[in-house]
Amino acid sequence: MDMSDQSSKKSLFIMLSVFIFVVAGTVMISFIARGYTLNINNVKNGSVINSSGLLSAVSKPKGASVYVNDRLFTATDDVINLTPGDYIVKIIKDGYLPWQKQIRIKKELVSQTDTQLFRSVSDIKPLTLTGAINPTVDHNGTKIVYAVASASASKDNGLYVLDTVDSALPLGRNQPRQIAPNYSYLDWSKFKFTFSPNSKTILATNNTVTYQIPLDSSFSPKMLVDASSQIELINQDWEKQLFQISLPKLDKIPLELKEVVSTESARHISFGTSEEKILYLAKNSIRLPQDIITPPPIQNIQTQSRNIESGNWYVYDLKEDTNFLIGNNNSLTNIAWIPNSDNLMFVQDNSIKVIDYDNTNQHILYSNSFSHELVTPWTDGNKIVILTSNYSGGQENLYTVTIR
C-alpha cells in the first residue's frame, strides 16, 4: 500500500470521525434541550437517560434566587432540569416582595415562571405641590385632570392636566399644564370632570352648569358655553364611541363568556398588555364549561373558578382557557392591570395591593393614608399615582409610589 492510499484512508477516517462526533453532539444537545439528562448510576437498570422537563426561571428584575421545594437551585434567568411532577417554586430577591407558585413540570416541555417582582419598600415622590382637587383619570390612564385652589398660590389657581406618559425631554417631563385659570365668577375646584373616549375633551360639571373643554387648544373664555341641555346626548355619543373602540377586543371573547361579561362600562372589562388575559366584572351567575378552547400542553394549574357569580371580578386567559376569581366588587375598588405585566392592583381594606392574574402572590404595595378618589398605575407600570397629604387635614397632592 503506497503512501497516498494510507493518507487518503487517514483523511477519510478523520472526516468520518468528525461527522460522527458532530451528529452525536447534535443528538445529545437535542436531547438535553428536550429535558433529558444522563444518569450513570442507573446503568444497572438498563437506562442511563432520565426523561425530564425544563423550568425556565425568569424574573424582572434578574438575579433573584430560585428555590425549588425549598432547595436553592440557581439565580434567574436560568433553565433547570426537573423530573416530571409538581413543584413549589420560590423566587426571592433582597428589597423585593417574595414570589411563590406551584409549577407542573411535564416530560420534554418547558414551564416558565415569568415572574414580576415588586419593591418591598415604598419610594414616594410628589407630582404636584399646590394641591389637586377632584382629580380624574382618562380611560387609557394617560392623563389626569384636576383643579388647584391654593390660597398661597392664587395666581396659579385653575384647571390642570398632567400626562402620565414619560416625556423624552427631561426638563419637560410630566409637568402639569394649566388648561384654564380661575376667574372671579368661576372656580374650577367646584367642578367634577369626565373625559371623552379619545381623551382630547373633558366635561366640567357643577350643580348648575356643564362646560365642554378641549385639551389640545388654547383656552378662551368664549369656550364657556353651557352644554347642560346636551349632556345626555354627549354621554350617549361617548358611550357609543367607547363601545366601538373596544369592539375589536370584545370580538376575541368566546361566546360562552360573552353572556356573563359586563360591558355596561369601560371600567368593567379590560385586557392585559398581551391582550391574552381579560379582567371582567360578572353580571350573571353561570357555570363556565370546560375546554372552551383547546388548552396548550403547559397550562396554569392554580385553582380555577368555573362557577361564575354575579358581582365578582375574574380573569379569563384566552390562550389557556383558565378562569380565576380575583374578588368581589363590594370589597375591592380601583382595580386595574399594571402595564407591562400580568399583575393587577386594587384597593382593599385601606391598602393598595398587587396580585398575580391567577389570584396568587397577593401583597400590600402601600398602606399609609391615601384617598380612594384616585389610585391608578403609571403608563410604564413602574409606579402608581395616589392622592394624599403629608399630615392629617393637610392639602392633598398627587404623588407617585415606585413599585418596581
List keywords for this structure.
elongated, 14% helix, 404 residues, Immunoglobulin-like, 4-stranded antiparallel beta sheet, mainly beta
What is this structure, in a nutshell?
This protein has helices spanning 3-33, 231-250, 255-258, and strands at 37-38, 49-50, 53-57, 59-60, 65-68, 71-75, 78-82, 85-92, 99-105, 110-112, 115-116, 123-126, 133-137, 143-148, 158-163, 177-181, 192-195, 201-205, 210-214, 269-271, 277-281, 286-287, 307-308, 312-317, 322-328, 333-337, 343-348, 351-356, 363-366, 371-377, 383-388, 397-402.
Description:
This protein is mainly beta and 404 residues long. The protein has a domain at 52-116: Carboxypeptidase-like, regulatory domain (Immunoglobulin-like, Sandwich). Helices cover 14% and strands 37% of the residues. It contains three helices and 32 strands. It has helices at residues 3-33, 231-250, 255-258, and strands at residues 37-38, 49-50, 53-57, 59-60, 65-68, 71-75, 78-82, 85-92, 99-105, 110-112, 115-116, 123-126, 133-137, 143-148, 158-163, 177-181, 192-195, 201-205, 210-214, 269-271, 277-281, 286-287, 307-308, 312-317, 322-328, 333-337, 343-348, 351-356, 363-366, 371-377, 383-388, 397-402. Strands 6-5-8-9 form a four-stranded antiparallel beta sheet, with no helix packed on it. The longest helix is centred in the first third of the chain and has 31 residues, at 3-33.
